[in-house]
Amino acid sequence: MSVATIQSGTSRRLRHNTRHHSIHHIIKPTKNKNRTDTNNTGFLILALLLVAAIIKSIDRWLFKQKRIRRRDYYRNVYLRSEAWRRKRYVVLKRDDWRCVYCGAPAAEVHHNRYARNIGNEPIKWLVSVCKTCHEAIHYQP
Predict the structure, then answer these.
(1) How far apart are CA 136 and CA 101, in angstroms?
(2) Neighbouring C-beta atoms of residue 125, cutoff 10 Å
(3) What pairing do the DSSP bridges indicate for beta strands 108-111 and 126-129?
(4) How far apart are CA 98 and CA 127, in angstroms?
(5) Distance between CA atoms of residues 2 and 139, nearest Å
(6) Phi and psi of 101, rounded to 5°?
(7) So where are the chain's domains?
(8) CB under 8 Å to 78, separation ≥6 — which residues?
(9) Contact in structure between 125 and 88 (CB atoms under 8 Å)
(10) Blockwise average pLDDT, block size 10, the chain, 141 residues
(11) How far apart are CA 111 and CA 120, in angstroms?
């Protein structure tokens, strides 16, 4: 073999190898992206569910606290106020101091409905009741 043939053969191999390497640098092998995306999606769904559960429990706790504050205000402030005493007197007088359910002497006033803002209930939502009927209304099985 002549030197020219050896050189041309070598240069062909070098050219081929160079071309081969450059293609691998341009076209990188792909990883299984679908598998990674599925794992990330599952993680995101779990994270969102966890956040939703935390928000719901906080919301439930806040609702319960608001309900307790409202109940305490109703029992300890409003039912002892002069405004409630006037409404109570008007209702008892309207119903002739008799229980609207059994006709016995009435000593208490029952709310058929409660207003959103405590103290804003109209007189027509209130009725005169005796203690027995009032307990029966509130403690129905």
Answers:
(1) 11
(2) 13
(3) antiparallel
(4) 10
(5) 114
(6) -95, -40
(7) 81-141
(8) 84, 118, 119
(9) no
(10) 50 52 54 59 89 96 94 89 94 96 94 81 93 89 67
(11) 12
